[in-house]
Amino acid sequence: MRVDFVFEFPRPTMPNVVYMGGFQCKPAEPLPQHLEEFVQSSGEHGVIIMSLGTFVNELPADMADTIAATFDKLPQKVIWRYKGERPATLGNNTLIVDWMPQNDLLGHPKVKLFVADGGTNGVQEAIYHGVPVVGLPVFFDQYDNLLRLKERGSTKLLTINTVDKDNNFLEAIQEVLTEEPPLTTG
């Protein structure tokens, strides 16, 4: 089964079942120079990375603007995997990239938070590297994956349609950043 026993709820399995979750996880490699310089420029506040996976390249303009404005209010630097039109409210602390070495960023000691869609690979890499998550599930198994992390205390779970309501997104990020992370590195 492509899940990790740490991630699963207890259930009976047959003797021939092998849990192979996290098989793609590995120690972080050094970042490309431009990303390393950006990460190092974060100082004591660290970095937040955001990716909504390979299926979501673009968001509605108002939602992208809300996310960018939220990031602009934070002292952390942000690396956001996003291919849509540049949000009008994008701050100087946010770097938009078409692609990011997600595993290598999650393994970097300055990364403090992962804003993620809850895809299996991202969730397992976050567990492996001990990075807390603010989850924004979009479809498929993402909500279920994030719910499992929430039950273990390492995720604040939102829905994508509440990002722009009552500062939910900002409050979720601040809550996760100020709590002691329950995950340990793999």
From TrEMBL:
> What's a Pfam family in this record?
UDPGT
Does the entry feature the keyword Cytoplasm, yes or no? no
Tell me which UniProt keywords the record has, alphabetically: Glycosyltransferase, Transferase
Q: Which GO terms describe its molecular function?
A: UDP-glycosyltransferase activity
Under InterPro entries, the record lists:
UDP-glycosyltransferase, UDP_glucos_trans
Keyword Acetylation in annotation: no
Q: Which family does it belong to?
A: Belongs to the UDP-glycosyltransferase family.
Q: What is this protein called?
A: UDP-glucuronosyltransferase 2C1-like isoform X1
Q: Which organism is it from?
A: Lates japonicus (Japanese lates)
